[in-house]
Write a structure and sequence with these properties.
- The chain has 16 helices and no strands.
- It is mainly alpha-helical and 396 residues long.
- It has 2 domains: 126 residues; 206 residues, MFS general substrate transporter like domains (Growth Hormone, Chain: A, Up-down Bundle).
- Helix 4 packs antiparallel against helix 5.
- The longest helix has 60 residues.
Length: 396
Amino acid sequence: SSTLAIKCCDVTSVSTTLMLGAILSGTGLILTSIVQDFFALYFVYGVFFGVGTSLLYTPCLVMIGRWFKKYQAVTTGLAVASSALGAVVMCPLIQHIIIVNGLRRAIRMCGIAYLTIAGLCALCFKPFSKTTNESSTDTKLKDHASECLTDESHITDSEHDFKDNFTVNWTLFRSKKYVVFLIAMMLTNFAYYIPIIHLVNYATHNLQISPTNASFLISIWSISNIIGRMVYGKIISCVREHLIIVYQFSMFLSGVVSILTYFATSHWSLVSYVIAYGFLDGSFIGLLSLVTLDIVGARDFAQGYGIMLTSIGIPIAVGPPIIGMMNDSKLLQPQFMFVLAGSLFVIGSILINFTRMWHNQDLAQKNSFLITNIQDEVKEPVKNTETENLWFVTNV
């Protein structure tokens, strides 16, 4: 649905896509509070709400590169930090609403909130200018982020061919650095939600931590996550050229921290884990769009980012249930989930290293080509001047 969100922006406009997302997600929640059939929830909640939230989330991140130039990394960090902030603020609030009004009424109230708040925000989005659809090659190399949506293959209000806009750019899969990047993202996202989803149950049943303290671990993780996203946004704004290295190193540290949690035996050891994992997660989510932008380039960013988000949907969906079934069947020790998650993060960081090397090689080739062309353009007038001088001396 992330690819669908990008294509809807191409065919219609950003505001229209966001309004459609608000209607689908709000309607999905309202219908969820009404239906009685369990399998109907797969459709009204899984499809309506899932697609609707994708139509709301994806364009907002993609558009940051069009609106913000100098502080694009910082604004990306602030934008993605808002989701973690929502987890801190809304989880206790929604829990209170459920206690007071019941689950169905609480879901219905959330659906109405989606319809009104998201719908009003969609009307306030600044449209793109039609006069900034072209930029020079030199500008693209100097600042990818400032033009990630400026050419005609991106989110604009220009006229497009409907069929072409819904065609996937399969040439992206010819790039080995992008394919390896997709594989790394699928592996790491298989493991990404495993510790968070199963952490409370693991703390209460295996370490005999009280349910209140166990659930508070998620709040600690969310707060640390907010700080991490803003800090990484500031760091990258200062060392933009080392973006992929920072992302790779943070992914590796996330794996190491998760593996070491296998030996956690107390509440405070888990607190240390969620603080470290939440902070490092600030790079994993906050920098993902920027890393994709660097790898695929400005021209293919919208499609590359959409394909990437679509590809990681399956591992995100199947990872936690598989670990849950393994824990229920007693196939492995419960704490093994930390080792599995950490190992996949480490493998992903190794794959990102290959992507980084190939990316640097491509940049070196492009820079060499540009330098050669610039030198040729500079030498050409000199040659003409020498010819004119020779003609003048001969005739005199």
